[in-house]
Structures are given as C-alpha cells and as structure tokens.
Amino acid sequence: MIHEYRIVVRHSPRVGMSVLENLTGHMPKPAPGACATMWLLHATRPTTMPGTPPITTRAHSTYTHGTSDSIAASRPQPEVRHLSATSLVDLLDVRRGSLYRTQDIWNTLVDPLSCAGRELRGACKAASPNGPLFLEMVTLLTMPESERTIDRLTDAGVFLIPARAGYLRPEDAALLRSNEGLLLWLQYAAPPTAYLKMFDGSDIFGATSMHDRARIAKILRILLACGRDRTAATPSNPSDLAPVNPLSHLCSQVAPHWLRRVLELGGCPHQMSQRGVPLIVSAMRAEAIRLHNAGQDFMRAHTSLRQLAELLKRHGADLTQASGRGVPAVALLAFHGLCGAAEALLISGASPNAADRQGNTLMHHLAQVLHMRESPTHTENAKLAHYALILSLRHGGNLDVPNAAGHTARSLLPEPTALGPQVDDALLTTARTTALRRIRPLS
C-alpha cells in the first residue's frame, strides 16, 4: 500500500528550510515568501539496499527491553568521538545497543579510521577481497535482528550451500541472525580456510574451558548451517594452499571429542579429503596413531577404535568405503601399518566380501598386492596384505567369490601362501616390523 504525504513549507530563515533540508538532504533556496512543495511516497515495506544508511536516527537494540522507547531515547547518548575507539564486538554488544543510535553505529562502521570499521573491513577483505561483502555486513549489522530474514542472509552470501537455508533448525537460524553469529560466521565460515584455526592449542584432546567449549559449539553450528563443512574450499589469497582436510577430518585429527557433534549436526560421514581419503580412514588412522603415541600396541583392535568405528557406522558411514583410488578402508589402514585399526573395522561389521563396481572385494585387493610380492616396490605392502588377509578370513572373508572378469581372489594368490587360520610367529614379527616402519612417518 502506498501513502502520499504533501508537505508544504513556507520559507523561514530559521525553521522552514531546515525542516525541508532534513527531509530531502538538498533543496534550492526559494525566494523569500515562496512556498516549497514536496511529495513523499511511503511504502509499507521499504527495500534496504546493501550500503544504504539507515533512515532512523533513534537508538535500537537487538535485545528486547522491558522499558518503553521513550525511556530508552531519554538515556544519555555517549559522545560519538568515543565510538571511533570502540571495538567491533563492543560496538555491537546487545547489552549496550540502547546506548548507541543506529546512525552512529552506521557511521562508525563505514569510517575507515574507526577501530570497529577497520576490524570489519579487514575481516570482509580476508573473506572476499574484491566483493561487496563489507557493505552487505554493514547493512545486516545495523538492522534489528527481527529484520535479518533468511532471505536477507541468503542475498548477503551467508549460505555457501544455498539449499541449507531451506531446512535450518530454529535455534541455528536465530544464531545466524544474531550479532554474535554473524561475527563468528565472518571470522570462521566466510574465509574458505578460516575453519582450520577454530581449534586452538588449549582445545586439542579436550583440555578446554567451559567458555571455549560453548564458543566452539556455536562455531560448529554455524559452519554446518551455512555449508562450510562440505564446500570444496579455495583460498581467498592465491598464495595460500587449499585445505587438505574438510571440517569432519579436522575434528577427527585434532579435536576428536567434537567429531560426534559434527555428525549430530549433519556432517557427512563418508566425506573424502582432497587427497581422496574417506573420513572412516582419517578418523581411524588418527585414533590409532594417538594410541601408538600413548604406548599402546598398534597391532591390537583397542576398545576406542571399535567405539569410533561404531560411532561412524551409526551416523551412516560405510566401513568398507574405498579411497579415491579404489582401495578399501581396511586395506588402506593395513598398508599404513595400522593393523589394529583395520581389524577394528572388521569387528565392527566391515564386510570383506563387499564388491566394488568391478566386482572386486577386499579379498581381491589384498590377494592382488600379495601376488606382486616379488616386486621391490610392493614387498612391504605384500607383507601387510598377507597379515590383513588372514584377519579377513577370520571375519568371514571368501577367497572364491569371482569378480566381474570371473577371477577369484584365490586365483591371484602366489604359491605358496599360508592362510592360517592363525598368524604364525614369523609372519607376526615381519608384519609388526613392517608396520612400525610405516607408522613412524605418520607419528
């Protein structure tokens, strides 16, 4: 609905033109006694363009106060010059929101000499060096939370995967609309590689304060809500390297106690790194190395390894998932020397008879490597493959299942090959020695 307002202002040296100038921002000075007429069109739902300063000059806060607007407006306003030295967080603090006028906040944010303005410009430049993000963020941060709709957040580029905006949980939507949520998004989600720094040294392996845990929990919610967990990140700065590990892989390696939360929030349980390593391998490898560094036997399927495999399985992970090169998870862990982790997958339900597109099972892969044991480049892998083959037979592996070409794993085995069911001392010693050589570079 459009309302028309006709404002007639008779020239007055002191009053008339000052009112008109406040409304229009510019008007030619009429002759004395003349009448200036202006038509204003007022839309019930104005559109705020990015970079457009707010019209209102009255203080507003994203915090809901019990006092009336008249009382809030009557509070003493801080001197504007003090705002230039205020940090971005303090400027937007909802508890102080009623002290600052919207126009003053806007002016401070766009001022390149103010502390808050420099902080915001620096963060936006790191995320989008030549994009419109700065004006988008200024617009969002100077409007009430109630006006920060999902559509506005989408237009500002908050959702890296736009489809995520369609099924946000209410609590996550509220977090993203808040000042705190927008600043956390700008710091950790907007720059493609910033999430790699979300875990500081105090948080690794669980030694963290309650405040840090609450903050990290919010960051994870924001990263998952906007889609940074699944984005193939490209660094903003060409001199930076692209991250090897997605968010779930990062958690499994440096902060394993947060992996469960990532999966609960919708993290992909079968996500691969840029090197084609599935999460199941990254997580199991990291846990096995932690156990080894703690003095535990890397040839055993420890309880924590089995629990990790069960956790991933409950959230939809395929324990037989192959790498980008087609190597099954059990075989890949075994070739890394982490035989205990490989056995933990078998115990937790990884089927050694699951076939890939060519009909090859885990047994085919292990038998093929064992077939090339005379080659110098495959000797060590063959020793570990022999050990893993016997483990797989214990857990139901079938050597007589043909692949798409009609070949069975048994037909690939060289002669002679001892198949157990028990691992003799000589093979165990050989496998342990070989595995230790593989683990040392990983540790």
From TrEMBL:
Domain of life the protein comes from: Bacteria
The protein, known as: Ankyrin
Species for this entry: Pandoraea anapnoica
